[in-house]
Amino acid sequence: MHTPLVARCLRGLEPVVAAEVLRSGLGDVTDLRHREVHYRARRSAPAPRTADDIFVLAAQRPDIGAARQAPRELAALAALTDPGRLLALRHDATAPTCVDVSASFLGRRAFTRYDAEDAVGEALAQRLGLPYHSRRTGTAPPPGSCGWRLTLDGTRATLMLRTGDRPLHRRAYKRHTVPGTLHPPLAAAMAELAGIQPGQLVLDPCCGAGTLLIEGALARPDARFHGFDRSAEAVAAARANAGALPVSVRRGDAGRLPLPAGAADRVLCNPPWGAQVPAGGLLADAPDRWWTELRRVLSPDGAAVLLLPGRDDLAAAIRHGFTPVHAQRLRLSGAQPFLVRLAPSDARRGRR
């Protein structure tokens, strides 16, 4: 039996999530929407690592519009659900203790997300015979709560039930963090885009807590993963997070890496561009050294998958001998960085 599922993700990653679902045989993609990939999967199928969270599709109806009184119409979604069937599809088979709802919508509305959450949550709680936990208070839902998600995209109102007991983006391995640490599903998407092959050496010159290397190693444990960071705290965090995975982390300056020329087959990196983590060491006075050192250590047939803050950084990559072969805009914590895959320019000329 196939279950209709919804993978929620960062804005801009919808095609990457859909590609993972199809490539890994997780299910059949049925629709791509704003921050959502809808697909049908076997109940036992694992979740795509590039997704922030996974939900069972519970009910849909036309969007309620923007009027202040509109949220009252959302109670009808609760009547369209089959609570017993939906709760049986959750990974946690224990009986839920309460209901909580998280809502988001596109466009201006004369009501708040809490108005929409309460309208649906109170109706669901009554239907299920459980208490309702409102998010208006700012307190986290109690243990054992079943999490529902409501989205209004201007066309549809969609109600979903989380399949797990916590959001998918909260990785169990990530026990230690440092400033600028990367969102794990985005790191997984970058590893996916890199197309890592068995035996390849994958490098992160500014690895922080090791999220990129770890997501790469979880997807491709038969490759080799090396990380460097100037911070002793970051190196310790990355080593602790990586555990027994094939990830080696040492202290090093991204402006002068202790690697021979052409050693890296793939580079995965969220460079320190100054937004959360300032450049230090050799890069503090000469930021372009990052590009020249990347160009030196990357194999002629290699690829670098990077997160770049803006167009100027993409232009800098081109000036330093790289050709973008993939570029897409994301929405991340209020910013709109570029996710890019770069190839050495001379390598592309050699293949023509």
Structure write-up:
This protein has 352 residues and is of the alpha/beta class. It folds into two domains: 52-162, VC0802-like, CATH 3.30.2130.30; 184-350, Rossmann fold. It has eleven helices and 15 strands. It has helices spanning 14-23, 75-80, 83-88, 113-128, 184-194, 211-219, 232-242, 282-285, 289-297, 311-319, 345-350, and strands spanning 2-8, 28-33, 36-42, 53-62, 98-105, 132-133, 145-152, 156-162, 201-204, 224-229, 247-251, 264-269, 298-308, 322-329, 338-344. Helix 5 crosses helix 6 (211-219). The longest helix has 16 residues, at 113-128. The radius of gyration is 22 Å and the shape is elongated. Mean pLDDT is 91; it is low at 348-352.
For the record, the count of structural domains works out to: 2
How many β strands by DSSP?
Answer: 15
Question: Would you identify the CATH H-level superfamily of the largest domain?
Answer: Vaccinia Virus protein VP39
Extract low-pLDDT stretches.
Answer: 348-352
The end-to-end span amounts to 48 Å
Helix content: 25-40%
Mean pLDDT, rounded to whole units? 91
**Net shape:** elongated
Strand content: 25-35%
Rg over CA atoms, rounded to whole Å, is 22 Å
- The CATH architecture of the largest domain can be named as 3-Layer(aba) Sandwich
In short:
With 352 residues, this protein is α/β, with parallel strands linked by helices.
